[in-house]
Structure formats: structure tokens, C-alpha cells
Amino acid sequence: MKGRIDSGLGQIIIDTDVIATYAGSVAVECFGIIGMAAVSMKDGLVKLLRRDSLKHGINVKITEDNKIRLDFHVIVAYGVNISTIADNLVNNVKYKVEAFTGMEIEKINIYVEGVRAID
């Protein structure tokens, strides 16, 4: 399902890939996030995604009442409090994605798939 915004002149349709790409770019700017992760269902391996494929580490769902649900699969920095990283990620993504899309975020789930040392 795609996001819908009704303007006075018509409807604006936002694809979930656009939301995922923007949310991924906001997420990797957050302190403590090394990058987005892709999990292979076949063998269970976690792979750090490059900057040009950030949307693959994010699942976007639009609910029936036109609200956004986001699932982030992230790799975090070693030695940083995961709760602090998650709070920072939720606050930044919620603010920026809502301002970008004009739609409300209903829920953000964060799945920590790995830990890496900061280079």
C-alpha cells in the first residue's frame, strides 16, 4: 500500500521505497549506527549494506488509516549504549520522516542485527 495525502487539488501518492530510502539516510546519520543490515533468510548471515542500498534494511508498511510503520535492521557501534542509540534513532526518524512525508508514524521497530567496532 502506498501513502496518500489529500491536497485541495488532488491526491499525492508516496511510494514506500521513497520513505524507506529517506528513513535509511536519516538513520545512518544517527550517532551509534554503523549502517543498515540485510539478513539472509537462507543461511542467517547478516551483511552491512552500502549507502546506495539502505532501503533494503528497512521495511515500510502503510496502515489502513494512512500511518507509517517502520522496521529497521541495524548494525550498531561497539561500546555505545543500545538504548541510547534506539532513542536517538526513533526521535530523529520520527521527526524528519513526518516532516518529509506529512504522514504520521505509528510505530518504529528496531532490530539490532550486529555490533561492529568504530573505525
From TrEMBL:
Keywords: Membrane, Transmembrane, Transmembrane helix. InterPro entries: Asp23. It comes from the Bacteria. The keyword Transmembrane helix applies. The chain crosses the membrane at residues 20-41. Belongs to the asp23 family. PANTHER family: ASP23_GLS24 FAMILY ENVELOPE STRESS RESPONSE PROTEIN, HYPOTHETICAL CYTOSOLIC PROTEIN-RELATED. This is Asp23/Gls24 family envelope stress response protein. It comes from Blautia acetigignens.
